[in-house]
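Quick one, probably user error.
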């Protein structure tokens, strides 16, 4: 089905069959799939005014599906605005990741452009509002673990890569690998992924096959960079040789995969799953330090990167209140800025207050889990916390 439209109506995913009107003398190849908004701007700059598109060859997202990430607020935005924008970006990223997984699983994906869009959007957001994005990785929804896990890992990887001083291109490779490293889990039966009873050796063998399944799913995309493939194939390898699928050890595992192993393990531990209770971030960090299968030099740098009490983690204060860590304190990692919201004395939500523990008569007693107090943190965070927190 052919349709004539103006350049202003052209969208990514449309297939241009021919140019109908243009100004200037620059010859434009007539025909091809428009992959990004940048291509449209290039066509407009070359004087293209009207084109013919072939809807049968176009790959358009349904009207109710997001096709791009929302705009990122300036770095100077208030904590409230930054968190609201980060929450919107995170939700859109999860929806885009779901569409990608479905397309790869059904072998209908034409390209991996959405992965690049996601990776760049996450990196930009981390650069502008690192604490806001870090906070979102802690607000877990057990019903969509597989989707959130890949986004969380990509956000944590962007933060880690920035801390280690990697340039933008390298950070993009790391984030792309983080988004794709568990893509093979889409081929593992949902019944097995969600089983709450003990898994058999055969069950674990099927789950561990997600590495090979993931490599098979991305095989058609020949332009995917080799370091990204290495993250996918090696993120479950361990430096002591105890990992899978091939039992690599030490520096035979690429440094990017060793970084991915740390982030993958950390986010899995702090996430509630059908067969595993989440642990508090402080407990997860302690376990990372004790894990001989992880590169301990990188583990130490990761712990320094996200802090003793990571942004977004839930803590209990000496004053008898619960609070969410909102900002780290580089001068004293034990005294971050927190947002208190719950009174343990009355067992009720309270007015949200911003407390800089470096200048307050209060302290963190311990890191805790929402389930310890029967809190539905994702619902509270989305429906109340963001809207009522101080501007």
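Nope, works fine. Designed sequence:
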């Amino acid at each position: 089905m052919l349709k004539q439209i103006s350049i202003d109506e052209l969208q990514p995913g449309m297939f241009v069959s021919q140019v109908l009107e243009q100004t200037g003398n620059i010859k434009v190849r007539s025909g091809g799939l428009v992959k990004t908004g940048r291509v449209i701007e290039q066509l407009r700059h070359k004087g293209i005014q009207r084109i013919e598109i072939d809807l049968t060859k176009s790959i358009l997202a349904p009207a109710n599906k997001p096709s791009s990430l929302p705009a990122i607020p300036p770095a100077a935005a208030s904590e409230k605005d930054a968190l609201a924008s980060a929450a919107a970006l995170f939700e859109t990223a999860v929806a885009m990741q779901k569409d990608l997984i479905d397309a790869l699983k059904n072998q209908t994906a034409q390209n991996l452009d959405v992965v690049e869009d996601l990776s760049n959007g996450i990196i930009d957001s981390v650069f502008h509002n690192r604490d806001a994005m870090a906070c979102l990785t802690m607000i877990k929804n057990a019903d969509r673990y597989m989707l959130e896990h890949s986004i969380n890992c990509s956000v944590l990887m962007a933060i880690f890569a920035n801390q280690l001083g990697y340039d933008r291109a390298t950070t993009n490779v790391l984030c792309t690998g983080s988004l794709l490293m568990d893509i093979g889990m889409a081929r593992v039966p949902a019944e097995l992924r969600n089983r709450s009873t003990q898994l058999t050796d055969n069950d674990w063998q099927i789950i561990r096959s997600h590495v090979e399944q993931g490599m098979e799913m991305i095989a058609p995309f020949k332009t995917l960079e080799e370091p990204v493939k290495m993250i996918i194939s090696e993120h479950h390898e361990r430096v002591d040789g105890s990992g899978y699928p091939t039992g690599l050890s030490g520096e035979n595992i690429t440094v990017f995969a060793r970084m991915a192993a740390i982030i993958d393990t950390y986010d899995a531990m702090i996430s509630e799953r059908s067969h595993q209770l989440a642990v508090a971030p402080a407990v997860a960090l302690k376990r990372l330090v004790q894990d001989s299968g992880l590169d301990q030099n990188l583990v130490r740098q990761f712990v320094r990167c996200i802090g003793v009490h990571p942004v977004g983690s839930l803590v209990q204060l000496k004053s008898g209140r619960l609070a969410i860590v909102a900002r780290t304190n580089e001068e004293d990692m034990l005294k971050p800025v927190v947002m208190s919201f719950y009174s343990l004395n009355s067992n009720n939500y309270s007015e949200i207050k911003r407390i800089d523990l470096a200048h307050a008569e209060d302290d963190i007693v311990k890191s805790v889990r929402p389930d310890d107090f029967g809190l539905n943190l994702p619902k509270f965070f989305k429906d109340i916390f963001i809207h009522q927190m101080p501007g």
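Strands lie at 2-6, 15-22, 32-33, 48-54, 314-317, 321-327, 337-343, 348-356, 364-368.
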